[in-house]
Automatic annotation (TrEMBL), chain D:
Keywords: Cell membrane, Membrane, NAD, Quinone, Translocase, Transmembrane, Transmembrane helix, Transport
EC number: 7.1.1.-
Annotated family: Belongs to the complex I subunit 4L family.
Pfam family, one: Oxidored_q2
Function: NDH-1 shuttles electrons from NADH, via FMN and iron-sulfur (Fe-S) centers, to quinones in the respiratory chain. The immediate electron acceptor for the enzyme in this species is believed to be a menaquinone. Couples the redox reaction to proton translocation (for every two electrons transferred, four hydrogen ions are translocated across the cytoplasmic membrane), and thus conserves the redox energy in a proton gradient.
Originating organism: Streptomyces synnematoformans
Main localization, broad class: membrane
Compartments where located: Cell membrane; Membrane
Catalytic activity entry: a quinone + NADH + 5 H(+)(in) = a quinol + NAD(+) + 4 H(+)(out)
Membrane topology designation: Multi-pass membrane protein
Subunit structure comment from the entry: NDH-1 is composed of 14 different subunits. Subunits NuoA, H, J, K, L, M, N constitute the membrane sector of the complex.
Highest taxon of source: Bacteria
Protein name: NADH-quinone oxidoreductase subunit K
Gene3D superfamilies (alphabetical): 1.10.287.3510
């Protein structure tokens, strides 16, 4: 009984907030609606007995969404949605596709004869997860690690325009970065002015 | 070792935290008065100043700004103390916490992150440039402190081989973690300040930006935001006790007294230490955090891991 | 209501005071600051944080507007008083806490406190009141980018003071829709939307124009900078032309030298004290803006001791301690080094003289020059010999030229500010600390 | 609390995210759609772990994978947007498509 209440109390807001993500005209609201939705997902995961992963989802999504909000505000055509905005294209097609996918998935969910529950969860699922990541799933872990590292490098390369030669001089001999006066990304000192 | 406290502790927790926050704020006011008026100015009489300010704000009117998003802002403001209290729920008093989940350490960190996102909302809500600048500053600050902070917390959990706060305390029955993980402890203290956006990390609410994220909040809104900040400081400083200072372990005195003493000592150290440093601006601090603190905490974690494997 | 009254009474005894400092009132400002310190009242950094406004100096017609803007933005209950001269500070501060017998409508002028209780004049500044988010519901979220949208509440020159402290009262419910979308041509809720422009980092983000000052804390009285911000990066800054100075006395910090130049007898000790105090005042501002309130407060206390005429032996030891402490802080050096670098050659080009020229470097160097100079002056503080009439080296530079020293500092500002982050910009302004009293005033002596 | 209910909720999240990802012009909004879809995946993986095979850790590993993918997708997405923004003031998918030409 209590389980059902908790489920609906988390799943309902999760879906509702997900809908609101694309209905809000304000970037901040959309981002935080997404956060609310994903926090509910984290709560559900905890409910399913995966305490560690649930809390990690909460932690990571909070950090991600907070950062996302910044990029939203920076880059959106109409950043704050001060005016009602509609930035949709092929709305009908998308509705048909996603509706269709939902019907398919729901049918699959309802019609599949799900196997019986086999076995019991480990006494400490977190420990079990750790041991499998460091054992049988080592390859997954290594791939993830490499992927994350590649992401760090790739994103920095993509996002920044200046390399160490810009910061430390052509022979890299400068003891201090040339843009120190402006913090980490001070193009003004480098290019001596505002903007290209 | 760690039991879950009775139900009344749930009710008591927020009040206890608020009381502690008021005492710490009073201590800060006394030290501020000592700097402003000198010894002859009877600085001790400034102790109730934060309470009087709180009462004034309680009676004052909140205000609105043009084309703001007051509700989003208020959600952010309310989240700050809520996150602090939720994080405080895993704080053991002696050996008992309100709750001691298996992943208490991660829970604590997640709640802090929530407060982090909340301050941005509080800065965004009023639709004012300076207040938004304050909100952004806290995000930048998070990028600087969050990673070393996580590694420091992880190191303590690693030393205890558990994410349960109670077991981390139990693992320090003999030797405090602060003794053999000094780098992690120091980094944790730094990030405790950063997390509460207080002290040398008060840039998000900096006076130079007219109060930053708090610039436009008045009345109860302001009270909740500022009180939430003190709560965060108390909770994060308090968390260093079970993580690094052996929790309730200690001779002669009962466990709760040791917790109280150690928490008071950490808070006193932080409040007094604040006088030594100007506000750290993130465009300068970030480089230090990533090139010094992150490798340092990683090394610390490595050392601890090797020790744990060999014992 | 009873509880609220009690809270209000307790709160009223401990107001947070917002200072509206007008140019030409330095001496009064020092007295007010000392008075507030004696009472232990905090100085608010923004109108929202304040419960009282103290107007320091005589407000001219040009100042009326922004002072009223600040007053409107302070949430009620609030009190206000004006201080015209250093002599009546105590009386003016007393009126802030004395409960008014009856609400006095409007500003009653000097000394009269204007208590705006919750039942007070509800129409003040509230015409553009937005009723929460109710009237925006249809648009999903009007919160917004107006944060970038050209509206800074502290410098509310254009009077769209949509801040109303009384949303407990539904006075405006009927016309709460005043601010709704005035046309969709880039103006929302009466605020222009930010447009894009080139920026420092090559990203063409939204650019926001806003005035900085004159109501900011730790800011040179009367200075208004029109800045274009992208994010928190100052892309462009310009000094807004000042209104013509009120005729009257000599600029406070330059007074001894100017009087000596006119032939008056001025002891050297007086001049040394004035210079020492001026540097301490500037250093306190820089330290406060850098977020180091403790030594800033000490510097202010020392400043008042120096000006109060106490013999040097009573305070010079503490001055030495303060200077050593600031010099020893490697963190402070790390945070301010490289900001607002003004090499001597560049300084000469702008005609800068005095400490900013002697520093030949960045904000940190200028701070050190101030502090060292203050220590030097402390040694002469009790010198009774008369000041030589040709000694014209004021605290901010050489007096007696065609332009005041601060004129040159103001000229140097825009270039130093370009590309600086907001916090750095504040540090740079504080590290030059132009004194607008001397600009345009009679400095030729 | 049944497996079907959890999976239906997960499917709903996934499809709302899909709709968003397909309709939104802004790259950043598109990424929000992707995040929602991955949220659905996380929920489904956790539910299957709990109701079907709690003894194995594969469900958990899938959650870890999804969380990592979310982080990677976010980081790469923002880097791409920043790079596009630098080259040309383009933050919309249609405009990015034009850049190819």
């Amino acid at each position: 009984m209590l389980d059902d209440v908790v489920f609906w109390a988390l799943a309902g807001p999760a879906v509702a907030a997900a809908v609101m993500v694309f209905r809000f005209a304000s970037m901040a609201r959309a981002t935080y609606a997404l956060l609310a939705s994903l926090l509910c997902v984290g709560g559900l995961v905890v409910r399913l007995g995966l305490d560690y992963l649930g809390v990690v989802v909460v932690l990571m999504m909070t950090i991600e969404m907070a950062l996302m909000g910044v990029f939203m505000v920076m880059f959106m055509m109409n950043p704050a949605g001060l005016m009602p905005m509609s930035m949709l294209h092929n709305r009908r097609g998308a509705a048909v596709i996603s509706g269709g996918v939902f019907v398919l998935l729901a049918a699959g969910v309802l019609l599949t004869p799900w196997p019986r529950r086999r076995g019991e969860p480990a006494a400490d699922p977190t420990k079990a997860l750790g041991e499998s990541l460091m054992g049988p799933h080592m390859l997954t872990m290594m791939t993830l690690g490499l992927a994350l590292f590649a992401t760090i490098v790739a994103t920095v390369v993509l996002a920044t325009r200046r390399g160490r030669y810009d910061r430390f001089g052509d022979d890299l001999r400068a003891r201090r970065a040339g843009d120190r006066g402006d913090g980490g990304d001070g193009g003004a000192r480098v290019r001596g002015g505002a903007g290209p | 070792m760690a039991d879950t406290a009775p139900l009344w502790a749930v009710v008591l927790l927020p009040f206890a935290l608020v009381a502690a926050a008021a005492v710490v704020a009073g201590l800060d006011a006394v030290l501020t008065a000592a700097a402003e008026r000198g010894r002859g100015g009877r600085p001790l009489r400034a102790a109730p100043a934060p309470l009087r300010t709180g009462l004034r704000l309680l009676g004052g009117q909140p205000r609105r700004t043009t084309a703001g998003d007051p509700w989003l802002g208020r959600i952010g403001i309310a989240l700050v103390p809520v996150a602090a209290v939720l994080a405080g729920a895993v704080l053991p008093w002696g050996f008992r916490a309100v709750t001691d989940p298996v992943v208490g350490v991660v829970w604590f960190n997640a709640m802090e992150a929530l407060a982090w996102a909340a301050v941005w909302l509080a800065g965004w809500g009023p639709n004012s440039a300076l207040s938004l600048i304050g909100g952004y500053r806290f995000l930048a600050q998070g990028l600087a402190y969050e990673l070393p902070h996580m590694f420091a917390i992880t190191t303590a959990a690693l030393g205890a081989e558990s994410l349960r706060v109670g077991e981390v305390v139990a693992a320090q029955r003999g030797l405090w973690f602060a003794v053999w993980m000094p780098a992690a402890f120091a980094v944790f203290l730094l990030s405790a300040l950063a997390m509460a956006f207080w002290g040398p990390f008060d840039h998000p609410l900096g006076r130079d930006a007219a109060g930053g994220a708090a610039a436009e909040h008045a009345g109860v809104d302001r009270l909740v935001l500022l009180a939430g900040r003190w709560l965060l400081l108390v909770v994060t400083a308090g968390f260093s006790v079970p993580l690094f200072l052996g929790g309730g372990h200690g001779p002669w005195l009962p466990a709760w007294a040791w917790t109280l003493l150690k928490t008071a000592a950490v808070l006193g150290l932080l409040v007094a230490g604040r006088r030594l440093l100007p506000t750290l601006r993130m465009e300068r601090y970030l480089e230090f955090a990533w090139t010094v603190l992150v490798p340092l905490t990683l090394l610390q974690a490595l050392v601890v891991a090797v020790v744990v494997l060999n014992r | 209501m009873g509880l609220r009254d009690v809270l209000l009474r307790i709160g009223a005894g401990h107001p947070a005071v917002l200072l509206a400092c007008l140019p030409g009132a330095t001496e009064t400002r020092l007295a007010v600051e000392a008075g507030l310190r004696r009472r232990g009242w905090p100085v608010a950094a923004s109108p929202a944080a304040a419960s009282a406004l103290v107007v320091v100096g005589a407000a001219g017609a040009a100042d009326e507007e922004w002072v009223e803007g600040l007053w409107r933005q302070i949430p009620s209950p609030k009190a206000r008083s004006a201080v015209a001269g250093a002599y009546d500070v105590e009386a003016a501060l007393d009126t802030l806490v004395r409960p008014a017998a009856a609400p006095v409508p409007g500003d009653g002028g000097e000394h009269s406190a204007d208590h705006d209780g919750p039942g007070g004049h509800a129409d003040q500044g509230g015409h553009r009141d937005h009723d929460g988010h109710d009237d925006h519901d249809g648009h999903g979220g009007d919160d917004g980018h107006g944060g970038h949208g050209g509206h800074d509440d502290h410098d509310d020159h254009d009077g769209h003071g949509g801040h109303d402290g009384r949303d407990g009262h539904d006075d405006h419910g009927g016309h709460g829709d005043h601010g709704e979308h005035h046309g969709h041509g880039g103006v929302v809720a009466g605020l222009p939307m930010a447009g894009r422009a080139d920026d420092r980092d090559g990203l063409r983000l939204d650019r926001l124009h806003l005035p900085l000052g004159p109501g900011l804390a730790d800011w040179p009285a009367g200075l208004v900078l029109d800045v274009a911000l992208q994010g928190d990066v100052v892309q462009h800054a310009g000094v807004r032309p000042l209104p013509p100075p009120a005729p009257g006395g000599l600029p406070y910090w330059d007074e001894p030298w100017l009087r000596a130049a006119r032939g008056a007898h001025v002891p050297r000790g007086t001049a040394a004290r004035r210079r020492c105090a001026a540097h301490l005042d500037s250093a306190a501002r820089l330290l406060a803006v850098s977020g180091w309130p403790d030594p800033a407060a000490r510097a202010r206390r020392l400043r008042d001791a120096v000006l109060g005429g106490a013999p040097a032996r009573e305070w010079s030891a503490e001055l030495g301690r303060l200077v050593r402490r600031v010099r020893r802080s490697r963190v402070l050096r790390g945070l301010t080094a490289g900001l607002g670098a003004l090499p001597a050659a560049g300084a000469r080009r702008f005609g800068v003289t005095g400490p900013a020229l002697a520093a030949d470097g960045d904000a940190y160097d200028r701070l050190l020059v101030w502090l060292d100079d203050a220590v030097r002056c402390a040694a002469e503080a009790d010198d009774d010999r008369p000041l030589r009439p040709y000694d014209r080296d004021g605290p901010r530079g050489r007096l007696g030229g065609p332009r005041a020293p601060s004129d040159a500092l103001l000229d140097a500002l825009p270039e130093l500010l370009r590309g600086a982050e907001f916090a750095s910009a504040r540090v740079i302004v504080a590290s030059l600390d132009p004194d607008l009293d001397e600009v345009g005033a009679v400095v030729r002596g | 609390m049944t497996l079907e209910l959890f999976l239906l909720a997960a499917a709903a999240l996934f499809c709302i995210g899909l709709f968003g990802a397909l309709t939104q012009q802004s790259i950043v909004m598109l990424m929000m759609g992707l995040e929602l879809m991955l949220g659905g995946v996380i929920l489904a993986a956790a539910a299957v772990w709990h109701f079907v095979a709690p003894a194995a850790t594969d469900g958990q590993v899938l959650v870890v994978l999804a969380v990592t993918v979310m982080a990677v997708e976010m980081a790469v997405g923002f880097a791409v947007v920043t790079a596009l923004f630098r080259t040309r003031e383009a933050d919309m998918t249609d405009e990015a498509a034009e850049l190819k030409e």
